[in-house]
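Re: [ENG-882] Designed sequences occasionally contain unexpected residues at chain ends

Forwarding the minimal case from QA. Structure tokens:
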């Protein structure tokens, strides 16, 4: 038995005190306000274009980073995805937070059909095989 009779609270379903659950509810509400409502649905293996807002001085412009999604990680506000592309023979990867205000939009160019949650094996490939995955049959990218 745990000190203070906590085992009974765990069995009763109230492991956290009332004060702890109230603070968690407040945090959940704050996180819900930070979430984007119009997130494009995409998966690992899809070829995407990520439109990012870049601020230079007093001007703002959109910069596009196109590549294959090789992984997704996290949930809620902490959700990230990694995009890999090969430019000038050099492979580059960039991690984007999904709910970041710096991301203007995410366009899905091609839907990919993969059997892995993370495509780390693309890092060792050379040439065209490093930038392509099997295209999903019957799917249209919108």
């Amino acid at each position: 038995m745990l000190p203070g009779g906590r085992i009974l609270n765990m069995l009763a379903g109230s492991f956290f005190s009332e004060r702890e659950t109230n603070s968690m509810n407040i945090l959940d509400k704050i996180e819900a306000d930070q979430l984007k409502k119009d997130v494009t649905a995409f998966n690992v293996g899809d070829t995407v274009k990520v439109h990012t807002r870049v601020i230079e001085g007093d001007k703002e412009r959109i910069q596009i980073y196109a590549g294959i999604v090789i992984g997704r990680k996290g949930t809620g506000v902490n959700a990230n995805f990694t995009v890999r592309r090969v430019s000038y023979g050099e492979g580059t990867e960039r991690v984007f937070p999904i709910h970041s205000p710096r991301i203007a939009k995410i366009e899905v160019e091609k839907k990919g059909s993969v059997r892995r949650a993370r495509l780390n094996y693309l890092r060792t490939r050379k040439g065209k095989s490093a930038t392509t995955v099997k295209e999903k049959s019957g799917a249209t990218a919108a």
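QA comment: On inspection the terminal residues look reasonable. Residues 18-34 form the longest helix (17 residues). Proposing we downgrade this to a documentation issue.
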